[in-house]
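Severity: low
Component: inverse-folding endpoint
Summary: output formatting inconsistent between runs
Steps to reproduce: submit the following structure tokens with default settings.
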């Protein structure tokens, strides 16, 4: 009897263990499935259709040489590719920065360069070499390999060169649309990655940061040699700008036909989500052949994306293309207030005359004050635009209103709400915060002049109100009188003209 009981107990225990194991495995599988379902791609987060392959065709190495510039400019001008980046230390960089200035609709960033890999075609840093000694090889140039940089350069030196390259473009009058890293150097050590992402957030310029929340993505890049550890994963998790789901490069081949086919296979293998694909186009030249043994791949890459066969393939695969400009527009949540064509969505009040001229919203007054309103009605908000005020001897005065409503007893009267002042000829000048008839929050400086375009941005969250002019914070004030309302632009005095364009808002 005892043996029977013992046998029964053992069988019962084994059954319980089996049930628990099955239950645990089932729960784990269910949790894994839920996690997978909950993990939406960055393409989906940015509002692209679910399940689609969203791709950035990105030309690296603009500015490296004249041939690279010619090929990259041709691709961008003809919309065959979506994005490119400039190697600031290279001989032809200034030329392409100027091209980017002249083509503001093109997505051009900085290909942050901390290495100089070619044997007979070298470059040094943009920074003073004395300030970044760890980046300099015995020949006085940047190190040829990422390994050399990691072994020699501090994170401070790497960051200094990052800033110098971005600031070079800004000083020439160009604000890069994104930043990435030549030869993956800034992912060669987590400390470098930390500085890379920090600068991106500080400047508000997105980096080619890769979402590492999926262990399979982590494994993929570890196998490629990237030193991904817990710190790197945490850095990406806390990074506040948009990320890529995937990152890869155009494969090499032994013939042009094989290269096209290899690229098609790459596209077929990609998962759904946001992927940046890099390549290095250049026109053929003796200079190019003298620089690199990979010249043939670069020449093919300057041809393949305009190839009708590949274009047709993209259409058949229903590929969605994007660039960093669109990504940031989607990410930031800005919505246009003005369509650039007519006054649809706007309501005119008062005596000023409003019209659209050459894509610009224009207000003029002959008889007196007027305002033009638009929605939506908001409480917490951010609004921005470009403005130009012409005095014409009439004492030009305007303003950007927010949380504003027409007076119920006199809809043509001054709006009841807040006004970010636009005026160059009085103490309470552009950037001051006004309430009806009353200068309220003082602007720290006057940054605007008659007949010159300037940017203005206003943020109102709860009682805190801030105003930026030309991206400089000039006014901060706490006030709770006006809780909710519309946007409006003022034309205050006879003989003046106010112009506005690139008007956007977002709800906070």
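Observed output (run 2 of 3):
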């Amino acid at each position: 009897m005892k043996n029977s009981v013992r046998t029964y107990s053992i069988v019962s225990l084994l059954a319980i263990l089996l049930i628990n194991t099955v239950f645990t495995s089932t729960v784990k599988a269910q949790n894994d499935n839920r996690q997978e379902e909950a993990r939406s791609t960055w393409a989906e987060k940015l509002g692209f259709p679910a399940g689609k392959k969203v791709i950035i065709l990105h030309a690296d190495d603009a500015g490296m040489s004249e041939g690279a510039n010619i090929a990259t400019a041709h691709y961008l001008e003809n919309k065959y590719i979506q994005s490119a980046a400039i190697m600031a230390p290279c001989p032809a960089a200034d030329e392409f920065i100027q091209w980017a200035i002249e083509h503001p609709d093109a997505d051009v960033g900085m290909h942050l360069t901390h290495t100089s890999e070619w044997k007979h075609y070298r470059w040094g840093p943009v920074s003073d070499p004395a300030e970044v000694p760890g980046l300099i090889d015995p020949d006085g140039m940047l190190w040829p390999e990422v390994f050399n940089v990691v072994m020699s350069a501090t994170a401070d030196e790497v960051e200094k060169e990052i800033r110098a390259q971005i600031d070079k473009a800004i000083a020439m009058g160009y604000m890069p649309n994104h930043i990435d890293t030549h030869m993956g150097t800034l992912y060669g050590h987590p400390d470098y990655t930390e500085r890379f992402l920090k600068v991106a957030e500080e400047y508000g310029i997105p980096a080619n940061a890769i979402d590492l929340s999926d262990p399979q993505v982590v494994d993929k890049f570890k196998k490629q040699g990237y030193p991904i550890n817990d710190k790197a994963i945490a850095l990406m998790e806390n990074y506040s700008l948009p990320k890529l789901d995937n990152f890869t490069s155009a494969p090499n081949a032994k013939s042009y036909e094989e290269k096209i086919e290899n690229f098609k296979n790459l596209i077929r293998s990609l998962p759904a989500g946001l992927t940046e694909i890099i390549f290095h186009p250049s026109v053929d030249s003796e200079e190019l052949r003298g620089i690199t043994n990979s010249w043939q791949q670069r020449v093919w890459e300057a041809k393949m994306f305009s190839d009708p066969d590949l274009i047709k393939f993209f259409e058949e695969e229903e590929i969605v293309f994007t660039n960093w400009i669109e990504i940031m527009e989607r990410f930031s949540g800005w919505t246009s207030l003005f369509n650039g064509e007519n006054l649809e969505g706007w309501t005119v009040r008062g005596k000023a005359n409003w019209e659209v001229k050459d894509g610009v919203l224009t207000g003029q007054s002959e008889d007196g004050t007027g305002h033009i309103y638009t929605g939506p009605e908001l409480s917490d908000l951010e609004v921005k635009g470009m403005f130009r005020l012409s005095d014409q001897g009439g004492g030009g005065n305007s303003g950007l209103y927010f949380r504003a409503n027409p007076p119920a007893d006199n809809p043509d009267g001054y709006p009841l709400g807040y006004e970010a002042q636009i005026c160059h000829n009085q103490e309470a000048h552009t950037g001051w915060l006004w309430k009806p008839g009353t200068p309220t929050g003082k602007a720290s400086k006057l940054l605007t002049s008659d007949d010159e375009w300037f940017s203005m941005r206003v943020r109102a969250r709860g009682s805190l109100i801030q105003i930026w002019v030309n991206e400089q914070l000039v006014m901060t004030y706490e006030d709770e009188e006006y809780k909710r309302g519309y946007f409006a632009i003022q034309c205050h005095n006879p003989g003046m003209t106010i112009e506005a364009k690139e008007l956007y808002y977002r709800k906070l």
